[in-house]
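User:
Care to share a sequence and structure tokens?

Assistant:
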Amino acid sequence: MRSLLLSLLVFTAAAVQAADQLKVLIVDGQNNHKWDITTPVLKNALESSGAFTVDVTTTPPKGSPAEAWQAWKPVFSDYAAVVSNYNGEPWPQNVRDAFTKYVADGGGFVSVHAANNSFPEWKEYNDMIGVGGWGGRNEKSGPWLYVKDGKLFRDTTAGNGGAHGPQHEFVVEIQNPEHPITRGLPKRWLHAKDELYSKLRGPAENVDVLTTAVSDLTAVKEPNNLVLSYHKGRVFHTTLGHADYSMLDRGFYTLLQRGTEWAATGDVERTAAVPADFPTETAVSVVKLEGYPKQEAPKPKKP
């Protein structure tokens, strides 16, 4: 009888935990980065927090026939948040319309790294991400957003959108310590080897820049974690995460967890604890994930 009671209690606790978890959908399938390697890291980053259950929907490969795209119909409304690890061909119009409605109606959206390169011609998407790079973006896409001398600049001078130098470790600095995503985190910490995006351009409306890093190209503080509102929806946009070794960084894990929860709910409660192994200003903290990293970080070139 006692063992039966204990079993029931364990089952009930598990059921309560599952009911309290937020459902998240990762979109991948095309990218100029190795999405097949990085999606499992994103999935682990979210699920290891205990706050999320994660599904993955993979688009047809590049160059697929229309029939393949017609069969791809993700139901965004089934999820509290959608995480994009996608940069590729335009989605079918019906999927774009469904996604726009999903976010506008209050769904959460998380854009990871090259996802901000996507869809330069999709107005609503660019409104959601605030700023993006490449894909023909330039001053006509919107201002270049950066921080200098403690002030947020919207630079409208002519120029292409999107640039980065060689991959390297760099210090991430909090600009808004009061936001739920960054609350309680160290002011500055060292991020693993990554691409430091700069000169991002876009509508840049309803943007709150959470963190920056000083670009090796521009010498100003470029946004690398920001939040936006899109009608009733919330968007967390991180430019970090070029490769699995970039994502296997405790700082990245923490921001992705907190940012996804905030996008889904508007607050950070389930993922609020600051990990004991959070990186310092002088030391990267690497998450140990069996079998990873699969990619090899480039070695610095000799002068």
